[in-house]
Amino acid sequence: MGGTYGAKIIAQALHDLGVKVIFGTPGLPVTDIAQEGLYLGIRFISFRNEQAAAYAATAYGYLSGRPGVCISVGGPGAFHVFAGVPHAMANSFPLLVLSGAAETHNSGKGAFQDVDQVALMAPHAKLSVRPPSADVIPKFINDAYRAACFGRPGPAYVDLPANLILGTFDVPRNQLKRITSPPKSAAPEGKIREIVQALKSAKAPFIVLGKGAAFARAERQINQLVQSTGLPFVPSPMGKGIVPDSSPNNYSAARSTAFKEADVVLVLGARLNWILSFGLPPKWNGNAKIIQVDIDPNELGKNGGHPELSVVGDVGVVVDQINSALDGWQWQGQSTAFFKNLQAAKSRNEAKAAKKAAVQKVPVTYERAYEIIKKKLDELSNPKDGGIVYVSEGANAMDIARSMFTMEHPRTRLDAGTYATMGVGLGYAIASYAAYNFPGAEGLAGKQGSRKKIVAIEGDSAFGFSGMEVETMARYSMDILIFIMNNSGLYRGDTDNAESWEERRKNTVEGTTTDGKGLTAWSLGYQTKYEKIAEMAGGKGLTAWSLGYQTKYEKIAEMAGGIGLVARTPEELAHATGVGFKAKVPVVVNVIIDPQADLPMDFSWLDMAPPKQDKAKL
């Protein structure tokens, strides 16, 4: 019987569009999509869980500039992969998800894994569609792929009924043309003149760099802007490296001072969301003119953004326009109170950080551990070459790492992002390896033509979300180096010794914790009296944030054929870092750090408490 296999039609469409890598978890009915892709030369990375695969595809989209592609089975698989869809939308990562679905003739009858996946995805995707017949499958995939990368990047979804995947169809070959890069738009010249005038007349001008600028690959234009004007800047967490962190104009260590005192702020490729405290008081100067340059018109004027000065356009193109209009202008504000305050805050905060990193105790602190890791990695790979890609997730593990590991190139740092998603770390690490080290690599960062070492810095809680993906790394010979910051808990541990922890576990198992004063749940410190923290943690059982005491995470690497190491002292950590960097297999370094059982869980950067209201006068 003639005809073309449905899975082959799908794989051909992806191949036509230039897809080089597919991420996913195989199973009926989508396994043959992956296999047909392999026949066409498309790499398939098979994950242990669809969530990790989806997260990997989002990161690949960010690093490559083209939609990352993820496939999954229907029903539960679609729900698992769904986690990556709002994550991609929140971060503006281009993503194409293809999920199997119940066959069209049985849909709605209670068929195998039958659920309305198009409706599930629609509110969170730029496009969610289901081809009615085999002949239009290429068109639907093409439309979804285009939707994912044109305009503000984001996720798109194609629902693929089992009968269309597994059937054979007498349809003509519909060869798709490869979609070129989206057109880049400029801002009106009149608006550019207004922006330039605002910058020139400002007493305290400032620049904020977001990951949208990194995605747009606008580093050349932005470096020219910073170097020619001398304007101070702060990068967002994933905007680090657009301008090298070593730049004297980088005031990351004075971020709070900059936000409070700047009167004109140029925000390039970053949204005024929680990461930037919305651009609103009390964190920001309420009289500041915050000028947004964004690809999405819906972002302009939002929260603290200036509705009239902000412009829609490609960051690189618009910054080129600004550079031309500035015509060599340089900021002469080095004698201003604003600049002096920035310098003072930067020096003060860097001194505090250096003091924390120098603390000599065992188990080591986060800061001390990161200082040791960074020093060793910098010896092995010159930061100026951009030879290391850092992936970081967790709470303290990620937040502290953000300030301690500096980036000299864009797209060499990934973290939980706008959606603050836990579980992305190992998927991101795999995607980074694929984007930078596979033949025909689509990622672009640092010294070209050289492979990159992928380093994942994981909180012990965050690692638990996707720890089995270490086996995925081993299966595909990915020499990824993973540090697990093991404090035996979320945010902090319960105790600093095994005996006390075992007693707590015994009481928890036996249910004898109700007479204690320990927390029953934790709401991110809302109205918590932190000065009472030692008293509140005085219960007899494990707290809500407890994990196993010094769990032997390194064993998961050994299980998969990699190398597992334990580091309890500075010397052991430095040695493990060197071994892990040079190894040709995945390495997990279990870093035993101070559990900080008495640490107040204070995330002052996260404004979850309601605004204070003035009490009415009687």
TrEMBL record:
This is 2-hydroxyacyl-CoA lyase. It comes from Recurvomyces mirabilis. Its cofactor is thiamine diphosphate. It catalyses: an (R)-2-hydroxy-long-chain-fatty acyl-CoA = a long-chain fatty aldehyde + formyl-CoA; a 2-hydroxy-3-methyl fatty acyl-CoA = a 2-methyl-branched fatty aldehyde + formyl-CoA. Residues 192-321 form the Thiamine pyrophosphate enzyme central domain. Residues 6-120 form the Thiamine pyrophosphate enzyme N-terminal TPP-binding domain. It holds the Pfam family TPP_enzyme_M. InterPro entries: DHS-like_NAD/FAD-binding_dom, HACL1-like, THDP-binding, Thiamin_PyroP_enz_cen_dom, Thiamin_PyroP_enz_TPP-bd_dom, TPP_enzyme_TPP-bd. Residues 394-543 form the Thiamine pyrophosphate enzyme TPP-binding domain.
